[in-house]
Amino acid sequence: MRIPDTLRKPVIQNKRTLMWSIVFVVLISLFDLLFSLLLKDAINAIASENMELLKSCAFKSLVLIVCYGVVYKLYCAARNRFLFSAICSYRSSIFDRMIRQNYKDFHQHSSTEHLAMLSANMETIKEDVFDPICRIVSLTVTGTGVDLVLMVHPLNL
User: Fold this and answer.
1) 49-93: pLDDT as tens digits
2) What is d(CA 149, CA 42) in angstroms, rounded to the nearest whole number?
3) pTM (two decimals)
4) Which of 10, 30, 112, 117 is disulfide-compatible with 89, CB 3.0–4.6 A?
């Protein structure tokens, strides 16, 4: 399936902010995996009644939560900037295409349709095209990370 140029160009034009969003979402996914491993260690410390290990896990968890919060804030800023820039680029390209139409083609559509192309459809494009990029990366990294963790630390049932 070929991605239309009107959807590909905004991503290419805003690849720097998309790259930062992806870097931050990968870090967030890795933090999720680390937190799971820390939780496993904390449960083992509780089961073995090892208070030193439990204190160590609590401290590591605190540091991880602070780092997670900082990276999540940076991710939100980068993601919102990417989405805003991509939608602006997309809206500009749609507007340019509408303006370049000849007079007959332009008047075949009602003004409501033209306004819908420039406003209401933008939210759909943002939610269905641009926003899922980071979610797909996050799910891929987390899924791969879980597989690797389970290979290294098999479940002992």
Assistant:
1) 989 999 999 999 999 999 999 999 999 999 999 999 988 888 888
2) 17
3) 0.80
4) 10
